[in-house]
Amino acid sequence: MRYAVISDVHSNLEAFQAVLDDASSAAIDEYLYVGDVVGYAADPKACVEMLGSLRPKAAVAGNHDWAIAGLLDLEWFNESAKEALVWTKGLLDDAEVDYLKRFQIVYEGGDITLVHSTLENPKRFDYVYNAGEMRRTTDLMKTTVCFVGHTHVAGIFSFDGEKVERIRENRVKIDQARRYVINVGSVGQPRDGDPRASYAIYDAATGTVEMRRVEYDIAAAQRKIIHAGLPPRFAVRLSGGY
Ligand code: ZN
User: Residue 219: enclosing H or E segment and its boundaries?
Assistant: First the structure.
């Protein structure tokens, strides 16, 4: 079974479509979703619909999904993010909002866990960037692999029972004696300096995880953000990947 693990689409249809095209060329059987299909960019409806049509095997909520679902206060967000959320909520119909409401906060199944931020307090949506802080999740994991998103910074972290280390390679063979926190990065708004859409492929049969980056039509996504009257910063940052 080969899974595409996607997170932080953030209403960027061009990036989402490019990732799905790449995934279809990579013999993907199932999708796993790690949160934040909406927020920031101009195509929330189309992105929610596309996610639904993938029928992900498991789906966990991001903070933007929860805000739209009415499960997280808008005060949690900065002004421009809030502005995009209010705009997004105005476009989605009840069925689409209901769909976002149904995501789990943590998924544990087989040998994998999905959570948008951390296992320590998944409803608080803390931002965890460095290896040391990953212990907040590795200590609580019941599975070998945990996929996360939220920071929009892709990275593989490995825990040997004593310390967590960031792995530099973009492919890892899972060692069952270890635990792994894998941030799959962001499909629609990467913030790790690489503007290409980010996702991961997990091959359960070979026990490997591969991080993928995919080029997409950034200018088209930017034009739509500007045209929709959303904060221009959300367009500008896409070309720099920050
Ligand atoms: Zn996000």
Answer: helix 218-227
